[in-house]
From TrEMBL:
It comes from the Eukaryota. Residues 13-133 form the RNase H type-1 domain. GO terms for molecular function: nucleic acid binding; RNA-DNA hybrid ribonuclease activity. This is RNase H type-1 domain-containing protein. It comes from Phytophthora megakarya. InterPro entries: RNase_H-like (IPR053151), RNaseH-like_sf (IPR012337), RNaseH_domain (IPR002156), RNaseH_sf (IPR036397). SUPFAM superfamilies: Ribonuclease H-like (SSF53098).
């Protein structure tokens, strides 16, 4: 998928939602491709949310993280095929609330990213961030908990 000469960043994102409480969370990891260094990794709590809202919020939060770091070339990977395909323009987005979020994604990603679907197995680190935020009931960052190394271990990324 990536050319050998690609020197940008990789964003992995995942989310979860408790339909009974309408509380959700998402996890985003921003990697510098050379050396697979974690640039940023955070879990976010999202209130009054549905599952589909969560999928867009994770993508938007990740794009915002990349923009804040000045990333110019980004590949975004998530395990929600619907969001990835809608962001790529392959399928329609018909729900008004999600259309607004899609528009926000399109604005943030201009000239910045390529999107790709990744199987859940290869997205475990982002899933971990999301699950921990939901468990804590608050947003958090791996830098605050000193958890960069565990996140790297569970990321399923092989170093060459």
């Amino acid at each position: 998928m990536l050319e050998d000469i690609f020197e940008g960043a990789v964003l992995r994102f995942d989310g979860a939602a408790k339909t009974s409480t309408r509380q959700g969370s998402c996890g985003c990891i921003l990697w510098e491709l050379s050396g697979w260094k974690i640039l940023d990794a955070q879990g976010f709590i999202i209130e009054d949310i549905t599952v589909n809202d969560t999928e867009y919020c994770e993508h938007l939060n990740g794009l915002t993280m990349a923009q804040a770091r000045g990333v110019r070339d980004l590949v975004a990977m998530g395990d929600s095929p619907i969001v990835i395909q809608q962001v790529q323009g392959l399928i329609n987005c018909n729900q008004p609330k999600l259309q607004r979020q899609l528009t926000s994604c399109e604005t943030l990603k201009k000239g910045l990213i390529r999107s790709a679907h990744v199987k859940r197995y290869f997205n475990q680190a982002a899933n971990y961030l999301s699950s921990k935020a939901l468990l804590l009931g608050r947003s958090w960052s791996v830098q605050e908990g000193g958890e960069c190394k565990p996140v790297q271990r569970i990321s399923k990324i092989k170093r060459s």
